[in-house]
Structures are given as structure tokens and as C-alpha cells.
Amino acid sequence: MAKLLGAFFYYPPTSKQVTGLIDGLLQLDQLAKWPNQQLVTEQCQILSTQIQHAEIEYQFSLLFEGQGIMSAPPWGSVYLDQEKLLMGESQERYREFLQQQGLTLDTGMNEPEDQFGLMLMAYAILLEKQQFAAAQQLMTEYLLNWAPMYLDCLKQNQVSLFYQALAIIAEQYLQMV
Q1: Which residues pair with 75 in a beta bridge?
Q2: Which DSSP category does 62 fall into?
Q3: Taking the model in full, what pTM does it have?
Q4: Record's superkingdom (predicted)?
């Protein structure tokens, strides 16, 4: 589930990396015992009505690639570092953690590793490798200390109902890990 959510927080919704995952995303409410099952079901319904929205690619670009002022920057260092800039000390510590775990996140895109979706995908990889202690460390030391602030910003965005719903689902997911 972390890999599925991570992909939608990282790749554009019409990209080849996620188009095959849309059915799974729309059925997320059926894949787990959620803290608030009804809320997740409602958000999946919103996702299903919004995924075909003509503006979804533009919405992704505004929220994740930064055209103008970003209402919800998806990088941890923006929330954790004193200067609120990309590539800060927290991102450097996270990069070192990934190197210690033998993880290299090469998506072909030039982006800091502390991007929310990338971090969820790294968490999923650690779980797949049965590196449970490292996966837990990723969550507690590197993601959960800023994810609530980020998801709150994303839930309040005025650009996309799709990403508001996705943020609510991600919040519910993080309560389960």
C-alpha cells in the first residue's frame, strides 16, 4: 500500500508509472482495516470522480512540480529545516540513512530524496527486503515528524479535490504504520 500511495504522490497521474495502478488506488478502502473506514471509502469515491478530470495533470504540476508558489511542498526539509529550503540538513541526514540501508532511489528525476511519495516508496522497499527495523526508523525519524504538516497543507489546497482526498487517505494510512 505504501508503494501505491507513494507512486501517486510522486508521479503525474497520467504517467505510465501510475496508469496501471489506478484501479488499486480506487479500491484502497477494501485493502485494509482503516482507522476510519467510512472516511476512506468516501475519499476513494472522490478519487474516482476526479481521476479523469481534464485538469489533473496541471493540478499535479502546481502541487508537486512548483509552478509559482507551492501551497504544499512535498519535501521534508521545507518543514524541518530552519531556513525552510530544499536540500537542507534533514534531507542530508535522510540521504545518509538511505545509503546505510543500501538504497539508491534513482527515478531518473533530479529531486531530493525527502519527497513524500519517494519516502513512502522507500519504506515499501525496506518492508519488501524485510528490513523492518530500518522501515520503522524511516517512519519515526524521517517521515512522521513532518508528514502531518505536509498532509494538512495538501488537504487545504485550493487546486485539487483529488489530492485533498489522497492526503486524507495517506493520513489514515500513516495511522496504521
Answers
A1: 115
A2: I
A3: 0.94
A4: Bacteria
DSSP string for residues in 95-157: HHHHHHTT-----SS---TTBHHHHHHHHHHHHHTT-HHHHHHIIIIIITTTHHHHHHHHHT-
> Domain containing 38 — which CATH number?
1.10.3480.10
- Per the structure, how many domains does the chain have? 1
CA dihedral 67, 69, 70, 73 (to 10 degrees): 110
Per-residue confidence at 107, pLDDT binned at 50, 70, 90? low
The mean pLDDT of the chain is 93
**Residue 46 belongs to domain spanning:** 2-176
> Which tens digit of pLDDT belongs to each residue from 50-75?
988 889 999 999 999 877 778 899 99
